Amino acid sequence: MHKKKYNFKGGIDYSSLKKEQSNETVKNFLSFPKKFIIFIKHSLLQKNQLRVRINQKVLRGQPLSFGSETIVPVHSPASGYIKNISFFSFSENKSNEYIKIVIISDGEDKWIKLHPIKNYKKHTPEKLIRIIHKSGIIGLGGGKFPSSQKLKLSINKVHTLVINAVESEPFVTSDDCLFNNYLNEILVGCKIISWISKIKLVLIVVQENKTEIISKISSLIHNQLLFKLCLISNKYPGGSSKILIKALTDKEIPYKKHAIDIGFLVFNVATVYSIKRAVFNGEPLTERIVTFLGDKNFFHGNFWVKIGTPISYFLMHFKIQAYSDINIYLGGMLMGNKVFDLNNSTLQGQNCIFITSNKLINKKYTEYACIRCGFCSKACPINLLPQQLYWYIQSKEHDQTNKHHILDCIECKVCEQLCPSNIPLVKYFKYEKKIQHNINIENNRRNLSLVRFEKKQKRLFFNKKIFSKDDLFLKSNPILRINDFNSKKIEKTLNSFEIEENKKNKRKEIIQQAINRMKLKNK
Amino acid sequence: MNVLHIYNVYSTRQIMFLVVIACIPGICSKCYFFGCGTLIQVLSFIALSFLSETILVKVRAKSFSKNVKDNSGIVTALLLGVSVPPLIPWWMIVIGVFFSIVVAKHLYGGLGQNIFNPAMIGYAVLLISFPLHMSNWIEKNDNFLRFKDIQNAVNIIFTKNTNINNTVNVQFFPDCVTQATPLNHFKNQTHLNYDNVIQNTINSNQQEIIKVSWICINISFLIGGLFLIYKKVICWRIPFSILLTLCLCSSINYFFLKNISSSPLVHLFSGGTMICAFFIATDPVTTACTNIGRIIFGILVGFLVYFIRNYSDYPDSIAFAVLFSNMITPLIDYYIRYSGYGHKRI
């Protein structure tokens, strides 16, 4: 058995705060919610096409949409009928448009006809990938990248599979719970993935404080050469794939490239589990484990939640009716976004719902001036200088922010947590990133127009050259002389083109002569 | 949306307060050797700085709670009060506060925006304009009782005319003409070869007492600095590199020219080396932000302290060394920066 502790630079140690919740079994909701709301992202470049109409009856697991290879279909979470289909955009982010589908359940949980595959080794990997694509599996850790696409890219490129069971955020234990209850199924899922992309080593990465799981896994793995257990230090943010690979192998993923390009395939545990379900049992992705975090007054624990259940249902079910006192975040304590609309539903990428009373959040934190203490740059896991970036953002020097690699920032909010002056640094960085994006677009446009201008000048010169054969005409015409200032340069380039063409022609002639000679010899 | 602060180690107020706590042993030992004048001076500096800050914040129309309550004014006033000799007159205190807090801090745009260390600007202004008062380190007279000492100090600071030539002061403190710091003594030795003259004026007994007092003061500041490093308020790289470079340069010099130069131990434990290394040079606003940059900054300060002490007219050279290297910090920050994730390392 292999036990080595891996560590990474920076981060925050939350071990004093974290409580163990892994002993708890997963809870099922007793009653079905009556209404499901599903949001499908809609954009002009990637078109989702709908498969259902209003007032149509649907069964559980029936696909609602289909698209090209890059888009995975979304399935209905329960049996019932479709009430309404409309366009929708949230009030906090109006740039993204969604298709909103409302399903009303009939209470019976009827599945569509399933096609389970018991022996996956009889089928080709391409067919298995197609099945995974059809069952609508995307990265459940929050990446939302379609996993069929990932598997297709990884064939003949990847040598190790990394299974990510690291929840760095405090109090979140959904992956932990999944490992505890469905260990055998996850190991089968690993074998399926390793068969698809021909992998001979599987690394299972777990945090070092989860002792129960470590002993369980190590007893199961004991004789198998395929698996290997790795322990990572209990720090935030260890869950990001970039940091995970650096901690394990001390290699960095190059700029604008993925982990596949170095030879690592990273999957979250929940994705592996759902892949196993899709292949072995034929079930498409309709539910996932979500952790609820609340105060002493509210509920907390791990639950199986169907994708598309609106948040208002949870509040109704646990009899929390004073909505004005409560703040709700989708995601963990640190990375989460505040919810303003109670019709917002749990989607595939969310592993946590966090509910607090207003009193905790409305504590007053006075924002002092930055004293450049350097705590933030010590803690930054990807080697940035947040304080320096903050100064450049305030003085609007966009060149310098680009030179200090602001686009690398993974928005983990570590720097904010340690800042003694309570400055919301990540807010500034998000704002600056948008500006950088706009600058990039404008630069591209400028380059394109420059290229067009040069091409146009070449064309104009060709036209002129036809005239220039007639010398008398050129000298007499005053308009054409205006363009003469550039003529020397363009003539040079044109001459070079002609020379190249002549060379090509000569080469062709030589090759043809050689071919003719060979033919003669053969005769 | 305001994020929940679960893991705030220190707030800015706490950092400043810890620095004030770390200064306490140094102040106590200074009071023991030079009389209670230092304590009165520090308190008056703090009161004046608070007053001037409130006025300036009102003039600049900024919020009181954000700019004054962060305790940073207290720290600058305290460091200025510690580094200045005891029993300087009240109008010099006013000038020092004006230049350190009004000019160096608030006219540059408040905390965090200043290029130079505010306490050192005040000290440098006083040192250049009133050199006689600023080199007036007086030994405590054992004839006075404690209460009388306080009364006497208040009298000298606030009421009486304290020209050096005045006979009243000389009567109380016969030592003041000779300027009894070991560094001054060393300076006279090196530049003028005044060995005989000095030996006549100061008894060898008194000289030893002075040396011991300076060593004690420096050690007490070192204890405070180690406390700050233990609490992880300041970075250990700056004081370590300053002390190492000073020790190295002076030991090389001592090895080759034993007659003229003083030993490295004298350099380390005299004047304001320890205050400079642990309290003044580590001011986070005016130092470089990367780890390598901090080491370069420390080496620069240590070398300059050695250089100015040996080859210039000023006996103690903290202020000029720190101010000069503050000038260079933007340059260091521009050229030394971290590479992000996934780029090639520089």
UniProtKB/TrEMBL annotation, chain B:
The complex is composed of six subunits: RnfA, RnfB, RnfC, RnfD, RnfE and RnfG. GO terms for cellular component: plasma membrane. Its cofactor is FMN. InterPro entries: NqrB/RnfD, RnfD_bac. Pfam families: NQR2_RnfD_RnfE (PF03116). The chain crosses the membrane at residues 6-24, 31-51, 88-108, 120-138, 212-230, 237-256, 262-280, 292-311, 317-336. One of its GO terms (biological process) is transmembrane transport. The lineage of its organism: Bacteria, Pseudomonadati, Pseudomonadota, Gammaproteobacteria, Enterobacterales. Keywords: Cell inner membrane, Cell membrane, Electron transport, Flavoprotein, FMN, Membrane, Phosphoprotein, Translocase, Transmembrane, Transmembrane helix, Transport. The modification FMN phosphoryl threonine is found at T181. Belongs to the NqrB/RnfD family. PANTHER family: ELECTRON TRANSPORT COMPLEX PROTEIN RNFD, ION-TRANSLOCATING OXIDOREDUCTASE COMPLEX SUBUNIT D. It is a multi-pass membrane protein. Its main location: membrane. This is Ion-translocating oxidoreductase complex subunit D. It comes from the Bacteria. Part of a membrane-bound complex that couples electron transfer with translocation of ions across the membrane. Coiled coil: none annotated. It is found in: Cell inner membrane. Its EC number is 7.-.-.-.
